[in-house]
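Need tokens for this chain, all 164 residues.
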Amino acid sequence: MLNGLDEGIKVQISTTITGAESPKLVMESVQNIFPDFTADECAEPEFGVSTNYHWINEQISLNNFLQMVHKQAILDTALDVMSLKLKHQKTSFQLLRQASIANKIAFNLEQGNPLGGVINVELSGENLADWLEAATWHKGRDAVPKKINDERKMEVDGEASTWI
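Here are the structure tokens for all 164 residues:
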């Protein structure tokens, strides 16, 4: 299974904790997808005192994330979302923390700050497009080939494109 690190992909994972969000629960949600993610222990919010932390880790394995994407059978969606902002061998996307606390992958297409917050993922490296296609490959692509930005990609709003 590909993990990004062994294939020359630079991986950066980050998340921001604000207001009454619990650092403990946020860490659990991030580690459900990226078990290697770490941060210094942070105080839980108290009445009248909000939290405000920004955690960043680099060179985190994508192995568990990719296994979850395979298990949920959302490989084509993952390819589309992961390559949506692909430019100059770099891309970024967001995952919903509310889904990750339940051990699910859900992509944030709104790029706002949804309830529960987001996990930011930034990837860069040579031949990133080829790596994304390989990391999300599945047997169905033998019968129906799929590439980044082909006619079968999802619409910008997340809707499925219609193709014949």
